[in-house]
Amino acid sequence: MKTQLGDSMQAFARTGLLGVTEANRGRYDYACSLERDFVRAMDAQVCWGNSAGLAKDIHHLLVASEAPIRLLVLRNTVAAHRQLEESLADHGKRDPSRLTGFRYFALPVGFDADKEDLRDWMADHLRQRLCADLLFGTIFGRLAARDLRAFVNHGGPFGLKCAVLGLCARHPIYAMGSLMTQLGTKSNSSVREVLVMLTSAGFLYQMPHQQPWLPTLKGRFLLDLLTRLLFESETRSEWSPEIRLILNHLNIPSDKLRRAAEIQELLASRQLDPRDSLVDLLCSAIWSGIYFDVDLRKGIDADHPVFRSELDWSKFENLVPGSPLPAAQLMELD
Asked: What does the CA dihedral 214, 220, 223, 228 come to, rounded to 10 degrees?
């Protein structure tokens, strides 16, 4: 279980959407640094024993660990849940702030590491939990299926919503006129509608009654995910296992990889299915570069691709007092 935890994290790192660097474990079963918009340490403990050992592991994670993300893997039993609740309640009374950033996975009992089929099943189950509860809960800006649905359901010119998001994520956009000039469009209403959608869905942030529009972690992750999807649609015959997990978490059908050339043919023949959210996402990514010269693939090394885009925070640091972005947009760890 301890080995699989590290292997699963490295598998997600191979998507290029985040960096994972193993760290000195010390007293913990696994430790690493997670790199995306920020570098955040994570300590993890696997407790598969009695409740007394579980109480000790929880104490070490909540009191001794200074990592902003702390993960506990335990057995899904009544005794384990009881001990977990008692320990969390006790520590919550002493110092509620220590519960921030704590995550736990209660995995099914009856796991036999000597049986290959059970090892494979548990490995898949652990990857699903890491994807849904850890990565999307802390690292990927809390992007949810409802957010992606708002993006997909928005109409307008193909590629415009992706292009607007891409430009706003690179540098502050202070005025509509400047944004329209960079896009090469005169459609004020279309651009304004896209800005409203992106802001309401949390992909951009704008202080009340003020400009500019600012990028959020959620919006930046969506751009990087679209870039990765576009890359795989051009270079692979099927989705990678980790991207398939991400798509499934976002309620996007992943049974079939849609090739970029196929998408362009569908678009040219006007045979697009409006219910196909994956096609809409790929269309937006492709036509962002064709129509508006905002190419998400620019700078991606085909041989050693990294999709974790860099952001120059110095361009934004004086726009919101005390922080490059509001704290709620930077890092929320429950």
From this structure: 170
Q: Which two tokens stand for residue 232?
A: 């795989």
223-242 b/e (C-beta count within 10 Å ≥ 16 → b): bbbbbbbbbbbeeeeebeeb
Q: Which pair of structure tokens corresponds to residue 228? A: 């990765």
Peptide bond into 212 cis (omega under 30): yes
Q: What is the largest CA-CA distance in the chain?
A: 67
> Distance (Å, rounded) from C-alpha 21 to C-alpha 9?
9
Boundary-marking domain end, from 109, 139, 169: 139
Are 20 and 161 in the same domain? no
Confirm if 58 and 84 have CB atoms less than 8 A apart.
Answer: yes
Residues 6+ apart with CB under 8 A from 45: 28, 29, 30, 57, 60, 61, 71, 72, 73
**Per-residue pLDDT tens over the stretch 43-94:** 999 988 766 789 889 999 999 999 999 999 999 999 999 999 999 999 999 9
Q: What's the pLDDT tens digit per position in 160-179?
A: 999 999 999 888 787 888 88
User: What is the C-alpha to C-alpha distance for residues 206 and 280, in angstroms, rounded to an integer?
Assistant: 26
The pTM for the full model equals 0.88
- Residue 330's pLDDT is 41
Could you list the residue range(s) of the whole structural domain that residue 98 is in? 2-139
